[in-house]
Design a protein that fits this description.
Structural class: alpha/beta
CATH class of the largest domain: Alpha Beta
Strand order of the largest sheet: 7-6-5-11-12
CATH topology of the largest domain: Rossmann fold
Number of helices: 22
Number of strands: 14
Length: about 600
Amino acid sequence: MNIEQLLQQRAVDAVSTLYAADQKDQLQIQKTRKEFEGDYTLVVFPILRQSKKSPEVTANEIGQFMVDNSPEIESFNVVKGFLNLSLTTEYWTNTLNTTVSDVDFGVSASSGKTIMVEYSSPNTNKPLHLGHIRNNLLGYSVSQILKANGHNVIKVNLVNDRGIHICKSMLAWQKFGNGETPQSTGMKGDHLVGKYYVEFDKHYKSEIKLLMEQGMSEDDAKKNAPMILEAQEMLRKWEAKDSEVYSLWERMNSWVYAGFDVTYKALGVDFDKIYYESQTYLLGKSIVDEGLNRGVFFRKDDNSIWIDLEADGLDQKLLLRADGTAVYMTQDLGTAVTRFEENKLDDLIYVVGNEQNYHFQVLKLILSKLGHKWSENISHLSYGMVELPEGKMKSREGTVVDADELVTEMVETARDMSNELGKLDSCTEEEATKICTMVGLGALKYFILKVDPRKTMLFDPKESIDFNGNTGPFIQYTHARICSILRKAEEANINFDGSVSVEALSPVEIGLVKMIADYPAAVKQAGETFSPAVVGSYIYDLVKLFNSYYHDNPIIKEENVEIRKAKLILSSQIAKIIAKGMLLLGIDVPERM
């Protein structure tokens, strides 16, 4: 039972004794607002009908009863109908000692739920870019947070390895590649394939322009340009398992997978299972056939298959093209059914940008109409796009921020700034490289994850790597500072093992203990809202509070042995929570900096 539940029970006992009333469902304990004195607040307005007294009198009666009968409560004050309760120093001391001895502090007991989180979901026609970075970091962090909330989490990646966009890269390489490979060019495989996706678009636009100059409308030119017609024919051949097309597809995809693996490793993300659209779309097609036979779907005159959702406030949705080839919805139906059947999932979370909101609304509705009750357990973590100071990115035009280049740039910038500030002066080259990698990636990850996922964000590399303010490096430096304090204590043979005594904590230290005690609630809220930003905000507030405390209060130079011991134990616990919380964001923290 946590403190909120305990105080609620104390309040229920008070109301039952004082007014012979059972108001359990109406008595809510919440944290006291910062501008008022107290730790927790009870709103007494719902009890006035039973007390038949004014809000102030009612609050005073309940407050006095709770102080008299609750060893955790030291005092109370009343502001109109708000009863503010202050807990004892002994309670907060015990809280600190308990958290120090609890190696799983902030980790919930097993919920028994299995949750699958799908993220990354790249196309094999281009390398990963800044938008993919937000996707990967969000998916990985949400998975870590859900694990901390006691859930069994399966991290999956659905690789979009088939379709017209893949054929575009294949066709352009076939026409203009002159047989070049990652080995012959020294390019990462995903970069090489992405080069030909851009090449396709360049030639396709030229053909459209030429056809329009010959009098064709823009729409007709887009449909009849030779490049797009050849790409569509290549897709039909691929689905027919044409040996030449299939062999080229396997070869180019293998280049891309090798490239992706390098990027994933650099970002520090991984997966428990990888699905491939090429292996799931056929099941999707069989589901479409089943829905057609049951009258859930209908066939148009051109042989394409659709579902009519107009009665549900949506529109008609294509499920199979006229030539029988699959669309994204086809394979998403197949993968959803496969995943729930194979893994006995309780929930499935798709981490996909907000431009796909409609797609997932339709997916859930179609699955429901097909009779799958578990469709209600599908969630779409819809995140906002990442924009740059100069505007949006466009893959087909090659105007994207490449993920590999960005990671390299962040590490190099971290080294430059660290050298400028003298933070690497005492480090070996190996230590410096390790720290700069940690700081560069920490800056990138924290800057992206501190923003609520649902918001569009502006990414500024220079701002992200500042050693001051709400940044990853600021938090990392604070952790290193605490580690330095603890090392100096050990070097001076200062013992800070054991527990903290009640007399050793002043009100300012108790403020830090209260902050520590909030960590499990932050992890829980982040899990409920799928928002790593909640953890990021908590860690930043904790770090700010500690730095303020450190500035005004000597730790190692404290003369009182018991107080010094308490300060060191408190500092050590804060360092552990910083490391735990940042790890939920996929960020490592250095011990030296």
